[in-house]
Amino acid sequence: MNFKLAFHYLSYLQYPLMFTALYFAFSPYLAGFAALKANPSIIFTSLNTALIFMGLGISFSSLQDTTKMQNTLSQNIWQNPAKGKLMICLMCLMILVFLLLGLVGYFYSAPGILKDLSVGTIVMALGMFGFLKAAIEIFEHHRLDKNSL
Description:
By secondary structure, the chain is mostly helical. It is 79% helix and 0% strand.
């Protein structure tokens, strides 16, 4: 059994997870404004669930094949050493901000909406760690200044 290929196929679970996150992000608005007026906390509950599913989807996307290029925009970024380094630095900064906001919200807020949202933010940041590893592998494999294609 080829485990690498199995994980590449497993990475396609990112799409249903992201669609589920998208559903939860828009579900309070699809219920109608009367339902939102009756229960305004449903927005934050749905947002927390959307963040959790988005973090799971991002973590599954890190299982993709890093030797293949996805599209021309990705090729434009990862083949250029300056753009690739900038993108990795931006991803690191984004993970740091999400993780710090989630941890501060979790440890310094009272039980309630903010504490719940911080759990979703932490799951999203943890999912992005795997994506960062995959981005670094893609950058190392495809950059033009180190590799002759």
